[in-house]
Every structure is written in structure tokens, then in C-alpha cells.
Amino acid sequence: MACAVQNMYLTCAAYGLGAFWATGGPMTGEAMRDFLGLGPADKAMGLFYIGYPAAEWPKSHRKPLDQVARWHEA
């Protein structure tokens, strides 16, 4: 589940969208299961919110790969 959420988050970031995965009782409890029409053995794993950020998208602070990695020929 976490890998799927990470992929959704990365896709959102690539398109300039903000995203947030929320978990906890209200998002994963019986009431949410019933609201989503899931079966009695199923469970919601949380909600994934997507939207456009109200503020300017933050700039990356990562160094270029050639400054943080060394390549060795075998």
C-alpha cells in the first residue's frame, strides 16, 4: 500500500499537484468502510487528498547527481 501511495505522490508532484495521505480512525474505521461500500472483511487504508497548492511550489534543494555520487568502472 505504501508503495502505491508513494507512486501516486510522485506522479502528483510531477504534475505540480500537492498530495497528502491521511490515515487514522475516521479514515480507516467501520463507518468509512460502510460509506465506501466495502465488504465486512475489507478495510479502507486511508484517504489520499490531491489538489493544487495555494502557495508557490517549493524549489528543489538537491545537489546534482554528479556532485553526490562517484561512478566506478568494473
Keywords summarizing the entry:
two-stranded antiparallel sheet; 14% strand; alpha+beta; NADH Oxidase; 74 residues; 4 helices
Largest sheet: 2 strands, antiparallel
Strand order of the largest sheet: 1-2
Q: What characteristic shape results from the CA principal axes?
A: elongated
Task: Tell me the CATH topology.
Answer: NADH Oxidase
Summarize the topology.
Blueprint: H1 2-14, E1 18-22, H2 25-28, H3 30-36, E2 47-51, H4 65-68
Antiparallel strand pairs: 1-2
Structure description:
The protein is α+β, with helices and mostly antiparallel strands and 74 residues long. The protein has a single domain (2-68), classed as NADH Oxidase (3-Layer(aba) Sandwich). It contains four helices and two strands. The protein has helices at 2-14, 25-28, 30-36, 65-68; strands at residues 18-22, 47-51. The longest helix is centred in the first third of the chain and has 13 residues, at 2-14. 0% of the residues are buried.
What is this structure, in a nutshell?
The protein has four helices and two strands. By secondary structure, the protein is α+β, with helices and mostly antiparallel strands. It has a single domain, classed as NADH Oxidase.
